[in-house]
Design brief:
Helix content is about 40%, strand content about 25%. The protein is α/β, with parallel strands linked by helices. The strands form 2 sheets. The chain has a 4-stranded mixed β-sheet with strand order 2-1-4-3. Strand 1 and strand 2 form a beta hairpin. Helix 5 crosses helix 6. The two termini are about 35 Å apart.
């Protein structure tokens, strides 16, 4: 069954409650009179409340209405924020360089407005030293406290210890800031075409190694 409203000669009722093109209430009029007014205004007669008695119809440009509705729906989907959980895995005896690299990923995820599941993986005799993992998770939480908070405290899960960090910044805010930054870069590139390429080359970071994370 089509979700499209009935328009013009597809409307099959003897009379309608008519709403004018500016939203004004015209009142209950015969269908023939409503269709005549639609022709005079060069608009469509659109049934907007089929279950009312009599049905409510409005004079409008239906093609323009459909286009604007589609654009609004597209913009709403574009701005929709999906809850995403990234995962970062660490070992309890991680070396400083690897820790800084992993922390950098966590920082980036939190800046994007995503949650981060931190998993400490214990192997062999490490399982008898859960305090190592706990201290590491506490250290990471403190290092990124300006960007995120502990949403789920560390807990043992078999051979792993898990903690979840939540971002202070909402996903929608992060998306809006990212778009603003992108627009600012485009405006700067357009205003300074000579130096924009050199600046972009200088600011482009080296390719990062593969990240150990997953989305849920």
């Amino acid at each position: 069954m089509s979700a499209e409203p009935r328009i013009n000669d597809r409307i099959r009722v003897p009379e309608v409650r008519l709403v004018g093109p500016s939203g004004e209430q015209v009142g209950i009029v015969p269908l023939a009179k409503a269709l005549e007014l639609a022709q005079e205004y060069d608009l469509d007669l659109v049934e907007v409340a089929a279950n009312a008695r009599p049905p409510v119809c409005k004079l409008m440009d239906y093609g323009k209405f459909k286009y604007e509705s589609a654009m609004k729906a597209r913009e709403a989907r574009k701005n929709q924020a999906h809850t995403v959980i990234k995962e970062m895995k660490l070992r309890p005896k991680i070396d400083p360089h690897d820790y800084d690299t992993k922390k950098g990923h966590v920082v980036r995820f939190l800046k994007q407005g995503d949650k981060v599941k931190i998993t400490i993986m214990f192997r062999g005799r490490e399982q008898s030293r859960p305090e190592l993992g706990y201290r590491l998770l506490q250290r990471l939480a403190e290092d990124v406290q300006d960007l995120g908070f502990v949403e789920s405290n560390p807990k043992q899960d078999g051979r792993n210890m898990i903690m979840v960090l939540g971002p202070h910044k909402k996903k929608t805010e992060a998306m809006a800031e990212a778009r603003q930054a992108q627009e600012a870069r485009k405006a700067d590139a357009k205003a300074n075409p000579g130096k924009s390429q050199n600046a972009a080359d200088a600011e482009t970071p080296a390719e990062e190694p593969a990240e150990e994370h997953a989305e849920a």
